[in-house]
Structures are given as C-alpha cells and as structure tokens.
Amino acid sequence: MQSALVVGGTGLIGRAVARRLLSAGWRVTVTGRDPRRLPADLAAAGVELSLIDRDDPAGLGVAVGDGRDLVVDCACYTAAQARLLLPLIRNVGSTVMISSKAVYVDAEGNHVNSPSPPRFAGAVTERQPTMKPGDMPYDSPQGYGANKVAAEQVLLDSGLPVTVLRPSKVHGEGAAPPREWYFVKRALDRRPALLLAGHGQGTDHPSAAVNIAALVEVVAQRPGRRILNAADPDAPDGLTISRLIAAVTGHAWNEVLLDENAPPQLGKHPWHRIPPIVLDTSAAQALGYRPVGDYATTVTDEIDWMIDEVAQEPTWKPPGIEPETATSWFDYAAEDSWLRATERPPT
Ligand SMILES: NC(=O)c1ccc[n+]([C@@H]2O[C@H](COP(=O)([O-])OP(=O)(O)OC[C@H]3O[C@@H](n4cnc5c(N)ncnc54)[C@H](OP(=O)(O)O)[C@@H]3O)[C@@H](O)[C@H]2O)c1
Fold this sequence. Notes:
Blueprint: E1 3-7, H1 12-23, E2 27-32, H2 40-44, E3 48-51, H3 57-64, E4 70-73, H4 79-85, E5 94-98, H5 141-156, E6 162-167, E7 169-171, H6 181-188, E8 193-196, E9 206-208, H7 209-221, E10 226-230, H8 238-249, E11 254-257, H9 282-287, H10 295-298, H11 300-312, H12 323-329, H13 332-341
Parallel strand pairs: 1-2, 1-4, 2-3, 4-5, 5-6, 6-10, 7-9, 8-11
Helix pairs in contact: 1-7, 4-5, 6-8
The protein binds NADP nicotinamide-adenine-dinucleotide phosphate.
Residues 8-14, 31-34, 37, 53-55, 74-75, 77, 98, 100, 167, 169-170, 176 line the site of NADP nicotinamide-adenine-dinucleotide phosphate.
C-alpha cells in the first residue's frame, strides 16, 4: 500500500487530495493544527491526523517518517518553510509543493496582488516570468508571490523529485473563503437585481480542488522536478458563473451589466479580471492530467456544501471571509441606491 503525507491536509486542497488518494487505495496521513477541520468522511475512511505546527521541525520529521511515497505540502508559504521540509524528503518518492499563479508577472512587472492589474498577452504558461524571490511578510500583497517563488526555488534547486503546482482561484468543499458565496448569498437573499462590473466579462481561471487532486495523483505516479499550472479545463467569466449559480440555487435576478462609467466598487465580483487571467494547462495534460470535470461540474461540491450549511443554520457564514471583505462584497445599500439613481429600480 502506498503511503502519503498531506501537510495542511485538513484544508481545501489537502482534503481533496486526501480523498482522491484514499479512494485510490493509499494510506494517508494529514496534518493540521485544528482537529475540528478534519472532515468526518476522512476520519471515517481511516485517515490519520497528525496535529503539528508547520514550523515545528521535529513534528514534521515524525510525520514524514522514512517511508512515504508522496508528500504534498499545502502549507508552504516561505523559503524558511521549504528549508524545513528539504532534509525530510530525501527518501520520499515524489514531493508536491502547492504554490500559486500569484507568482507570475507581466511585461511591466505587475502581478495579481499589485496595485495595477497584470496584462498577460494570452494564456499563461509555466515559462512566464515570475516575481523575484523575497522574504518580506508572506501574508502581504507584495510578499505572497515573492515568498512562494523563494519557497519554490529552495525545493527545485535541491534536485529532488519536487513538483511545484501553481493553481489559480481554488474552489471546493471547505474553501476558506468560498468565493462563489458572492453569488450564492445574493441568490439566498433573493436579490432582485445582480450588478456585474465590466459587463460580467471578467475572468480569473478557476481551479477545482478535485482537479488539483487528480493532478497530484498523476505526479505521484510520475515523480519529477517540474512546475505545472493547475486549473480547470475551462475559464468561465463572471456572467457565466453568476448564471450557473442562479440556476443551481433556483433563483432569477435581473442582470445589470455595468460599464466603466459605473462606480468602480459596484458589481466587483471575485473573478473581475480584465484583461482575463487564464492558465495554460497543456504541460499538466501532457503528463497525464485528466480533470475530474469542468467548472460547472466541479463547483457543485462547494455550492452544495454552502447550501447544506445554511439549511442547517440560517445564520451560517462561510470561513475565511474577513469582515471588510463581507462589507465590500455585500453592500446592498450602495447597489440599491445606484439602481434608484439610474432609474433602474429592482423589480
Ligand atoms: N485557496 C486558493 O484559492 C489558493 C489559490 C492558489 C494557491 N493556493 C495555495 O494552496 C495552498 C493550500 O491552500 P488552501 O486553500 O487549501 O488552504 P486552507 O484551506 O487554508 O488550508 C490550509 C491548511 O494548512 C494548515 N495550516 C495552515 N497554517 C499552518 C501552520 N502554521 N501549521 C500547521 N498547519 C497549518 C491548515 O490547518 P489548520 O487551520 O488546522 O492549521 C489547513 O490544513 C496554500 O499554500 C495556498 O497558498 C490556494
């Protein structure tokens, strides 16, 4: 029986990876700090939970042990964390580090967290330039991508069979935050009108956690030293995503497609990226990646989860949505006042 350790395995990507490997007959250990984040189905399926801090070298060493076929690190944000892992994976068959598309820069040096949005010429391949490595606070707009690059380099420079995966906007059961809540909550609140910035044409490639997990399984069987984009087979725009969620939730709203003259904060959904950001996944496909499904098929995991939670507890709020984000996402008063001012009352 093959054995895997998923560091950060109680989170969004980690739990999908654990489920995929368990159903393929692997023995799986996951790490995390909060035992309440271990999904009941994983506990029932016999996953082992190791409660350790990612920054505790001794705990990490015990968790890796000496006989893992696969280590997947979903909680590697800095070069220092990568260096902690390095001595532990010398005897590991295949190691996967979950990085991010936030590392990519355009010709002007802009990236997804910079003040000016990046303008990529087309679908972004793994050969696209990245930010320079950095060690500023990783949980900052300038630091997130720079620290990911630094962590990638530590692992790849080791020469060990390390695969770096660069997902985009990840969706799935347990997402923190689940970005689709932007539309799901509006549907549950029976909003009569839906405002969409940029005519709803913004696109930011989604990555289903179950699709990332499918790619991890391929990488586990084909160890190597490489970087792969990890994304869904399609990249729907905001309008398409909103219609899908309206259909799944059984709600109809009037679509109000905003142009550049509308106040900039209105209708600014999480996929509002113009020009669009699309990842080229041909390298992953060439290796054998076969997605579980397209966005519409795979996003139901997350939507069903949210709707079930609300059915059990009507005041349920998804994890990972900061109060400021909730305030800006759901400023219904601003929407209604703009609709009234433009003589487009919600009907
Ligand atoms: N979500 C996205 O849209 C997205 C997009 C691109 C890249 N990524 C990358 O993908 C990776 C996984 O993301 P995710 O969305 O699956 O994250 P997540 O849902 O927040 O899960 C993070 C996991 O790591 C654990 N963890 C975090 N800090 C830890 C620490 N100091 N010590 C021990 N465990 C720790 C968490 O468990 P506890 O909470 O119990 O500590 C949890 O199991 C991250 O590296 C992220 O940068 C995510």
